[in-house]
Write a sequence for this structure.
């Protein structure tokens, strides 16, 4: 063993906020799955609207919305990393070393309050995203279930029979 030996390793282990580390890993995995599935889901929905319903006008908002979802996911992953760093600084022996003065403790409290505020704002943003996902999923599911078959396909048009509408 080197100069640090057993004490350095024990100090590092006691300073690690394991619950926050697991939460960050889960957050990153969730953000990755969300960004990937949302990107693909919006593309399929746009294709459904254009191919089946022949809607080409008024769909300019879809791509910026898709980009906003990806940016929101990336900002959530970055915020999770910042919260992990703050948790490391506020755990165990690191807290004693970093926040020695009263000014340092006040700064740490202000940083924690800012992260709490930002987390609540992002919670509201994720609730809006969840609402959008519910609307998109419901629309896609209803469209998929109601369309029975493509009856006739010619060079100029596609005839689709909808069960609910006669």
């Amino acid at each position: 063993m080197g100069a640090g030996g057993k004490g350095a390793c024990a100090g590092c282990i006691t300073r690690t906020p394991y619950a926050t580390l697991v939460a960050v890993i889960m957050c990153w995995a969730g953000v990755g799955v969300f960004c990937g599935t949302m990107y693909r889901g919006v593309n399929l929905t746009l294709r459904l609207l254009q191919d089946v319903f022949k809607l080409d006008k008024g769909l300019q908002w879809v791509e910026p919305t898709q980009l906003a979802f990806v940016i929101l996911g990336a900002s959530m992953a970055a915020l999770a990393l910042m919260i992990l760093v703050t948790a490391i600084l506020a755990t165990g022996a690191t807290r004693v070393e970093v926040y020695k003065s009263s000014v340092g403790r006040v700064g740490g409290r202000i940083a924690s309050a800012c992260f709490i505020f930002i987390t609540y704002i992002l919670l509201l943003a994720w609730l809006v995203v969840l609402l959008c996902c519910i609307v998109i999923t419901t629309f896609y599911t209803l469209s998929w279930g109601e369309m029975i078959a493509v009856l006739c396909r010619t060079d100029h048009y596609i005839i689709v029979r909808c069960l609910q509408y006669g």
